[in-house]
């Protein structure tokens, strides 16, 4: 199956007065057409910066480097600003984490959704834009779209705002959608509905999804492949089945065991991960997880582990050293 997104050795650093912040520090992954890759990790590990690097929406103090960054076969690193704008919405789109900060509170949904259609197809008439807007709102499960399209964002519930964001992101029918914590602010029932909607839309449009999340519960519902990220690095990567049922990295194991209902049954004690993600200005020597890892050895604090590959399962950990190393 063809790869829609290919990323090799992506680095996204930021120049600050205190020094260089290494938010994303040499990660590689790919997503096949019609498949979902979940990028999982705690807040501050570099997940959202990775997604903004894909979208080319970084601030001016960012330094972006990559051996390869291909979207639909197009080299993003060689694109002009005009080509990047054309890419957004058609080749790649993004569902942001909090719709209330992404939707403009001063404009009705009709105007915000209509702008997307007009931008990518200037020849559409006002009537055609209105009809297409109603169609996409209906498709994402918004009831009474004729009424909702006249509403301001604050007049919609959290679930309807998120569905509106999904409608806007899909208006130009992109083949890759980045969903950045798409269910974080929603209750469990609405969360399940949004995930089911994304799966249905993925089948309908054969689109790829890059899911950004900290929640392995969400991952288990929708992902085909999983990449676990820690302090700017991918520490484990493989199929959903491999990562869930045969986790290799101590961080991955603890993340999974910190979520109720996955491997920890009702009444059993959830695991916690001591400490916090390190400051990207002052990263520890050796393995970045070593200061929080109960299984860390002397070498873990001195040397950074390489990526060990067995089959399609990858891990960056000395516990797997001595096996096939690539």
Give a verbal description of the structure.
This protein is globular. The chain has 326 residues and is an alpha/beta fold. The protein has eleven helices and 13 strands. It has a domain at 3-91 and 174-285: 3-Layer(aba) Sandwich (Rossmann fold). It starts with a strand and ends in an 11-residue tail after the last strand. 31% of the residues lie in helices and 24% in strands. The longest helix has 18 residues, at 188-205. The strands form two sheets. It has an eight-stranded mixed β-sheet, sandwiched between helices. Strands 1, 2, 4, 5 and 6 form a five-stranded antiparallel β-sheet that branches. Mean pLDDT is 90; it is low at 322-326.
Task: Identify the notable features of this structure and list them briefly.
globular, disordered C terminus, 11 helices, five-stranded antiparallel beta sheet, eight-stranded mixed beta sheet, single chain, Rossmann fold, alpha/beta, 326 residues
Task: Summarize the structure in short.
The chain is built from eleven helices and 13 strands. It is α/β, with parallel strands linked by helices and 326 residues long. It has a domain of 201 residues: 3-Layer(aba) Sandwich (Rossmann fold).
């Amino acid at each position: 199956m063809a790869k829609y997104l290919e990323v090799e050795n992506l680095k996204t650093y930021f120049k600050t007065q205190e020094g260089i912040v290494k938010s994303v520090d040499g990660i590689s992954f790919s997503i096949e057409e019609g498949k979902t890759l979940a990028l999982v990790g705690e807040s501050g590990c570099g997940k959202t910066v990775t997604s903004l690097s894909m979208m080319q929406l970084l601030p001016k103090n960012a330094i972006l480097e990559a051996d390869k960054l291909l979207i639909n076969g197009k080299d993003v690193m060689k694109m002009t600003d005009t080509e990047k704008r054309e890419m957004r919405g058609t080749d790649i789109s993004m569902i942001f984490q909090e719709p209330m900060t992404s939707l403009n509170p001063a404009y009705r949904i009709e105007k915000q959704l209509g702008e997307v259609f007009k931008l990518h197809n200037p020849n559409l008439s006002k009537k055609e834009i209105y009809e297409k807007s109603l169609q996409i709102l209906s498709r994402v499960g918004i009831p009474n779209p004729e009424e909702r399209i006249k509403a301001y964002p604050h007049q919609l519930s959290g679930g309807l705002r998120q569905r509106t964001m999904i409608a806007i992101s899909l208006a130009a029918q992109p083949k890759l959608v980045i969903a950045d914590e798409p269910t974080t602010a929603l209750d469990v029932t609405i969360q399940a509905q949004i995930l089911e909607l994304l799966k249905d839309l993925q089948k309908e449009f054969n689109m790829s999804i890059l899911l950004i999340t900290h929640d392995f519960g969400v991952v288990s519902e929708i992902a085909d492949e999983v990449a676990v990220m820690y302090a700017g690095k991918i520490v484990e990567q493989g199929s959903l089945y491999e990562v869930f049922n045969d986790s290799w990295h101590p961080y991955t194991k603890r993340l999974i065991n910190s979520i109720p209902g996955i491997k920890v049954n009702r009444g059993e004690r959830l695991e916690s991960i001591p400490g916090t993600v390190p400051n990207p200005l002052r990263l520890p020597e050796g393995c970045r997880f070593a200061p929080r890892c109960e299984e860390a050895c002397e070498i873990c604090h001195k040397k950074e582990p390489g990526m060990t590959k067995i089959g399609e399962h990858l891990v960056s950990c000395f516990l797997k050293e001595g096996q096939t190393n690539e």
